Request: fold
Amino acid sequence: MRFKTLYTKHLCQKIFLIFFCITISSCTEQYIFQSNTFEDILVVQARITNELKKQEIKISRSFRLGEKTPTMEAGANVYISEDGNKTYEFEFEEYSGLYVSKEPFQALPDKSYQLHITTKDGKSYSSATQTLTAVSDVQVEPKVETIDGYKGVQIQVTNYDPSAKSKFYRYEYEETYKIVSPAWSPNRLIVDPNSPNKEEPNFLMIPREGETRVCYTTKKSDDLILLSTVGQSEDRINLPIRFIDISNPILNERYSIIVRQYVQSLESYTYYTTQKNFQLQKVFYRRFSPDLIMAIYNQMIILTKK
Reply:
């Protein structure tokens, strides 16, 4: 009798909980996002560094939600002025979609720079005057470590700015490694073009042409690696930037990595932080089903509703 009473009590609790959830769900309204308004604006990504090279600028148009890639803005007149007198002109590259400076140059600490753009429809734009941020040297060190039970090589970035003027950092890396095919033959098998029976052809073994056993692969980092030392007692960095498991075949032959450090202004750091947060939101939406996202969204509405 006691067991039957407990069972009935639990059953009533479950029925009440289901009814309560249905009642709450009925209080929420589904929101259908509509992008009826769209502003076609110019989007400029310009990064000028103190590295002596041909500098690059990306100029595109804004695109609607749901579109995958922007449209590059070709045919514009683009140049950078140095201290208001010397200019560096840029030209558009069809294959890359970027504006590249006609001659190599570098940003200097005692100079000011301003970007000027005139589009093909005659509209003119110019940036605020910018100066080079603090220069801070970076050191890259490989260390053998075990992380979460996996032994491998940890690529560590260290840096110290005694002037404490750097504060905002962004990192990119480019790794290159050698690959040697473990199962390789100097010959290859082809169909004999002179076979009398086309349905059951003969095969020929011929030597391979060129180098096919050894190749090299270069990959760039695809993540925004950002760091700020604001609020710390000193401007010192000890950042693990890349971990490679010891069983990873990219370490079998030869491996190299180039790490680039960019000391940014507060405005640049804020821009890239916002962009990274937006990328994380897109990953969230790709990782979860729409029903689950709507369920989480509904719960958030319920919790904040008064």
Observations:
- Residues 1-11, 14-28, 283-306 have pLDDT under 50 and may be disordered.
